[in-house]
Amino acid sequence: MPNPPLGNLTAEQFLADYWQKKPLLIRQAVTQFDWLPGLDELVALAGRDDVESRLVELRNGKWSCESGPFRPSRFKKLAASDWTVLVQNMNHHQAFCAELLYRFDFIPQVRLDDLMISYAPAGGGVGPHFDSYDVFLLQVGGRKRWRISSQDDLELVDGAPLKILERFVPEQEWELEHGDMLYLPPRYAHEGVALEAGMTWSVGFRAPTAQELGGAFLDYLRDRIELPGLYADPDLAAVSEPARLPDDFVARVAQMLNGIRWGEAEVRDFIGRYFSEPKAHVFYDSPDDELDEDDFAAAVARHGVALDLKSAMLFDGDRVYINGDTLDAEPAALPALRELANRRRLPPADYPAEAVEALYACYEYGYLAPGGE
Ligand code: SIN
Ligand code: CO
Predict the structure, then answer these.
(1) I want to staple 101 with a disulfide (CB 3.0 to 4.6 A). Which of 45, 91, 111, 255 is the partner?
(2) Please, which residues have CB less than 5 A from ligand 2, an ion?
(3) Separation of alpha carbons 53 and 161, rounded Å
(4) Distance 187 CA to ligand 2 centre (A)
């Protein structure tokens, strides 16, 4: 696995001095690109309905933001400048994008979100704004001027279709060239304007709100609670105001609801499932010519195995999670499954039968496939 693309810094130095603290510019952070898309390739991706894309335009001083999929003809109608097309979750669609995203996995995978690619002609940008999460902005081809500000005033233009700062007071400015990368902590004001047509590849992070987590955790609990008992009131007394909520009824219901309990085990299990759940738009295809388990075992021994680009796999102690579910696995399977989760692939080897069995179950769902050595 290549080192994190942090220039001369180690992951430890970066986390101690910059992560969630202050911006960092790294010249020539990534110099080797195994895949460099042209605009036509991005336009083709933005035309697919399993790919999330947006088109941002600034016309006569007014911002607009459309969601894909887009017909190729939509791009013929654009002005020579002042637009940006953005394609999200590129790591689900292109192996090199996934490889680049996972070069940032010195940060736990539960915190990694996606790699997004934006393309803008000279003059294009998405306006001054802030993001709620950390971001690495990697320049790929072309040149972009980035201006940033530590301002506390994060008021947004009212009614705009995307987040645009009402007042932006830039404090620092850089021109990024191919391979240069800018890290910004959450809520740091910034604005990028292309000086020459090119791309920004953004590595984004996942920072759920307490409200999102609370709602999702309550959904998790609802599917699992088993509360005993049935309301009973053998001591009921006659009432003169039948519509009034009786205090003892309220007290008994409160006591029944008090049976809803959870502890660390439930929180851990919730996290494993929730943070490996597929995003909207994501579907897995079962293999076309499905191998039987013996042929699958032979293929894994010869070629190794790789997670599908869209798969998310996590583990917690003896529990393994893949794409929102637990994976039943015998203890002898765990070392291989943990390595697969960490590295997203396993090298060719003779794995224990227990591991092959668990891998085969995932293979049948299209979560992984032999190969990728
Ligand atoms: C862009 O790719 O142009 C915008 C990325 C960002 O500002 O977060
Ligand atoms: Co941004």
Answers:
(1) 91
(2) 131
(3) 15
(4) 9
Domain boundaries, the chain: 11-205, 210-263, 293-370
- CATH (one of 3.40.366.30, 3.40.50.300, 3.40.50.2300, 3.30.460.10) for 293-370: 3.40.366.30
Q: Please, which residues have CB within 8 angstroms of residue 151's CB and are 6 or more apart in sequence?
A: 167, 168, 169, 171, 189
Atom of ligand 1 nearest to the CA of 86: 2
SS3 label, residue 29: coil
Alpha carbon distances (Å) from 290 to 287, 307, 345, 360: 5, 16, 20, 10
List beta partners, residue 305: 346, 370
At position 22, the amino acid (one-letter code) is: K
Residues paired with residue 186 on neighbouring β-strands, in sequence order: none
Mutate to test the pocket of ligand 1, among 63, 83, 118, 147 (most ligand atoms within 8 A of CB): 118
Cα torsion 344, 345, 351, 356: sign: positive
Nearest listed ligand to the Cα of residue 56: 1
pTM listed for this prediction = 0.94
Class of domain 11-205: mainly beta
Radius of gyration in angstroms for the set of CA atoms belonging to the chain, rounded to a whole number: 25
Per-residue pLDDT of the chain (373 residues; tens, 9 = 90+): 468 999 999 999 999 999 999 999 999 999 999 999 999 999 999 999 999 999 999 988 899 999 999 999 999 888 888 899 999 999 999 999 999 999 999 999 999 999 999 999 999 999 999 999 999 999 999 999 999 999 999 999 999 999 999 999 999 999 999 999 999 999 999 999 999 999 999 999 999 999 999 999 999 999 999 999 999 999 999 999 999 999 999 999 999 999 999 999 999 999 999 999 999 889 999 999 999 999 999 999 999 999 999 999 999 999 999 999 999 999 999 999 999 999 999 999 999 999 999 999 999 999 999 997 6
The conformational region for residue 234 under phi > 0 = left, psi -120 to 50 = alpha, else beta, is alpha
In the block, which residue shows the tokens 């800018």?
182
Closest ligand 1 atom to Cα of 135: 8
Spatial separation of the C-alpha atoms in residues 199 and 196, rounded to whole Å = 10
Q: Which ligand is nearest to the CA of 87?
A: 1
